[in-house]
Design goal:
The protein is an alpha+beta fold. The protein contains 15 helices and 10 strands. A 4-stranded mixed beta sheet has the order 3-6-7-10, with helices on one face. A 4-stranded antiparallel beta sheet has the order 4-5-9-8, with no helix packed on it. It starts with 8 loop residues before the first helix and ends in a 7-residue tail after the last helix.
């Protein structure tokens, strides 16, 4: 990873405060199913380089400046700090924004230098929406049952199959999809996808929360695949395909945890602002949740630092994601209870925050998967000293 000085978390958090407040200003409008993040909030395009580009410094000539120094948001730690603050404003707008997102992480893990140059150059030209597609309708993210495939036909290769629950795929300019090229777990590859090619069909899925995300089902109907679209051909079979996906999840889970903590803080701040007269037990409960939030933040930043250092060990990443997903829902439900039975109707922002809070359980692996990762980490003695 390219090295440069990473700002102190508090200074980095303060540097994006105005952006977070801009996110909040359009949160309810963004919750309408027909709203488009490409046009609704100007920050999405105007601050693309500062907030979403997340590429090596040589590809970003206009980074976020913190106390006169550049911050490229290229590390997991930086993104965890910034994305928590932005998610306080509106997590749904944040995850629907342009940028490399998980497609960038997996491309960095697997692509050869030529593929990286092509990818980085495309992203650096301006706001670019991307997607990352693993999950399938019948198999989830289970590689052993993956059926989406790249097959040989007269004249070349094509992709056939489906992916489901993919964010931003209907508005994407490029993406990465996992596909099978031969039987067995080592027969899975990551493929760079150009949605403008024939045979690519993306259908939006209606959701109750995170509506701006544009959750999508993709049909690949003999979409042409070039040889250079297959990532990781220069790597051994054990290091490409799903191995790259696992490293991507390790780097992504602290970011998901950070966004969940942003929403958790938003619900507690809302409750404190709009229920100024709290009874003693309510005040005590709120303060306990704030203390747990600070603890979960420390865990998340620790996990992010470890992921930057070693993306092959996802133990701490799973711990952070599990605890944050658990805490955000508890905070949202606590805040709703403070306002009584009519809270959802009388406080639409709080209603949205609660609906959005439920999404974090399912992002980058549900809680039972994180528990399994933690158990495996414990058995391998990865967490005894943490």
């Amino acid at each position: 990873m390219t090295s440069y000085a990473i700002p102190e978390p508090d200074r980095l958090r303060a540097a994006v405060g105005d952006y977070a407040r801009s996110f909040r200003s359009t949160a309810l409008e963004m919750d309408r199913p027909e709203s488009d993040p490409k046009t609704l909030n100007p920050v999405v395009s105007d601050a693309y380089n500062q907030l979403f580009l997340s590429l090596p410094p040589e590809y970003n000539q206009d980074p976020l400046m913190v106390d006169g120094n550049p911050s490229y948001l290229y590390s997991c730690v930086e993104r965890a700090v910034v994305y928590e603050e932005l998610a306080w404003g509106d997590a749904a707008l944040l995850i629907s924004a342009p940028g490399p997102s998980l497609s960038g992480v997996v491309t960095e893990q697997l692509a050869d230098p030529v593929q990286l140059e092509r990818y980085y150059t495309r992203l650096a030209k301006g706001p670019t929406w991307t997607f990352f597609a693993v999950t399938e309708p019948q198999a989830g993210s289970d590689a052993t049952n993956m059926s989406n495939a790249v097959v040989e036909v007269d004249g070349g290769k094509v992709m056939r199959g489906r992916k489901k629950y993919v964010g931003n795929a209907a508005r994407a300019d490029l993406g990465v999809a996992f596909a099978r090229v031969k039987p067995g777990p080592l027969g899975i590859v990551a493929v760079a996808v150009d949605p403008s090619r024939p045979g690519y069909h993306a259908t939006p899925i209606a959701t109750l929360g995170m509506r701006a995300f544009g959750l999508t089902e993709i049909h690949f109907d003999d979409m042409p695949v070039e040889e250079d679209d297959i990532l990781g051909k220069h790597l051994s079979p054990t290091r490409r395909g799903m191995a790259g996906a696992m490293r991507t999840f390790c780097l992504a889970r602290p970011i998901v945890a950070a966004m969940a903590l942003g929403v958790a803080k938003a619900t507690l701040d809302y409750a404190e602002e709009h229920r100024r007269e709290l009874r003693g037990e309510e005040r005590t409960a709120l303060e306990k949740l704030r203390q747990r939030h600070l603890g979960a933040r420390h865990l998340t930043l620790t996990a992010a630092a470890r992921a930057d250092n070693d993306p092959s060990d996802g133990t701490m990443s799973s711990a952070a994601k599990f605890k944050a997903a658990e805490l955000v829902l508890e905070c949202a439900e606590f805040a709703l209870r403070l306002f009584g039975p009519g809270a959802r109707f009388e406080h639409p922002l709080l209603d949205k925050l609660h609906r959005d809070a439920r999404a974090f359980e399912f992002m980058e692996g549900a809680g039972n998967m994180q528990r399994l990762n933690l158990a495996q980490g414990y058995m391998k003695r990865r967490i005894l000293n943490d």
